[in-house]
Specification:
There is one protein chain. By secondary structure, the protein is α/β, with parallel strands linked by helices. It folds into two domains: 4-243, Alpha-Beta Barrel (TIM Barrel), CATH 3.20.20.70; 248-309, Arc Repressor Mutant, subunit A. The chain has ten helices and 14 strands. It has helices at residues 52-63, 86-96, 114-119, 135-142, 150-163, 182-195, 219-229, 248-260, 268-275, 279-291, and strands at residues 4-10, 14-19, 26-27, 41-42, 71-74, 101-106, 125-128, 167-173, 199-203, 234-236, 241-243, 266-267, 296-299, 306-309. Helix 1 (52-63) runs parallel beside helix 2, helix 8 (248-260) packs across helix 10 and helix 9 (268-275) packs across helix 10. The longest helix is centred in the middle third of the chain and has 14 residues, at 150-163. The chain is globular. It starts with a strand and ends with a strand. It binds iron/sulfur cluster (SF4).
Length: 310
């Protein structure tokens, strides 16, 4: 599978089949906490990076077997709304598989574009993120593509709220010592009041991010931050997702990966290409293998490219 992954069980979404409709690793942000590695193609250009028809074909091959799912989720290793085909894919899902809910996880950088908002209007749930408001903290955490700023992001989300009839859960990722200051939290609370989401989800790091200095906040501090946001509808929510059955899919992928490792270091991208898998899945499988001592991972020459050594 090149675009469809999982299913995974998440506390927020239930049993979710993921769709990754952006090539690795293309994004309008290069977040310091990104679990998918550094962004190698930083852009705000919206275009059909991967043909919607190819993605629909792969989705059909999975969904035509009527798997037990709660939701189909657009997420993955880049910003899904940068693919201009997203609206067509959502409409296809709504027409042919109306039994599944549709969720879109977005970094919010395209929400000021009316056409992009229209393309996701038929989703059931949108999870936009907003981690900072002041320019300094916004640029420090997200390292955005040129031209991206928090005012456009907030205005875009206000417009989305006005037009979108489904549920909006605003996600705020808290990094110790960066966006947990009273000044930044105050700005985030004011922005949240303006956006008026159905829920605000507070997250912190629970897996290694791209940059080692990123630290999670303690659970006590998260409780304090939650109180700070009240009476807005705020929840602390773990980011962790777990495979539905350490899933057959993951075990198969790990075994295949072991068979494909050599004494030579090989990049995750090369293996992904060879196996027809997503780079991010290869990285995660390699990390799981590394944890149990089956493989070593060394950083590659380019940021975000891992190399795997048996
Ligand atoms: S966390 Fe999301 S928005 Fe940030 S760089 Fe990674 S994929 Fe892009």
């Amino acid at each position: 599978m090149k675009y469809v992954f999982g299913p995974v069980k998440s506390r927020r979404l239930g049993v979710s089949l993921g769709i990754d409709i952006i090539p690795y690793k293309l994004c309008s942000f290069n977040c310091v906490y990104c679990e998918c590695g550094a962004t190698t193609h930083l852009t705000t250009e919206v275009k059909e990076y991967i043909p919607a028809d190819s993605i629909i074909r792969e989705l059909d091959s999975v969904l035509s077997k009527s798997p037990e799912l709660d939701v189909v989720t657009f997420s993955g290793s880049g910003e899904p709304t940068l693919n201009s085909g997203i609206g067509r894919i959502i409409n296809h899902l709504k027409t042919d598989y109306p039994q599944y809910k549709i969720a879109v996880l977005t970094n919010s950088t395209t929400m000021h574009i009316a056409e992009v908002r229209r393309s996701i209007i038929h989703a059931d749930l949108i999870v936009p993120s907003l981690d900072a408001v002041s320019d300094e903290v916004f640029n420090r955490i997200m390292k955005p593509a040129p031209g991206v700023n928090s005012s456009d992001v907030i205005e875009g989300l206000v417009s989305l709220r006005r037009e979108f009839k489904g549920e909006i859960c605003l996600e705020i990722f808290i990094i110790e010592g960066v966006n947990d200051t009273t000044a930044e939290l105050k700005l985030l609370k004011e922005a949240s009041e303006k956006i008026s989401p159905d829920e605000i989800h507070l997250n912190s790091l629970d897996r290694p991010g791209t940059e080692k200095w990123v630290k999670p906040v303690s659970s006590e501090r998260m409780q304090e931050i939650k109180k700070f946001f009240e009476p807005l509808p705020v929840k602390i929510i773990g980011k962790a997702v777990v495979p539905v059955t350490l899933s057959a899919y993951n075990s198969i992928l790990e075994n295949t990966l072991i068979l494909n490792l050599t004494a030579e270091a090989v990049s995750a991208e090369e293996i992904a290409e060879k196996l027809g898998e997503r780079v991010v899945d290869i990285i995660r499988a390699a990390e799981r293998l590394a944890e149990i001592g089956e493989a070593g991972i060394i950083p590659g020459d380019n940021p975000g490219i891992y190399r795997i050594l048996k």
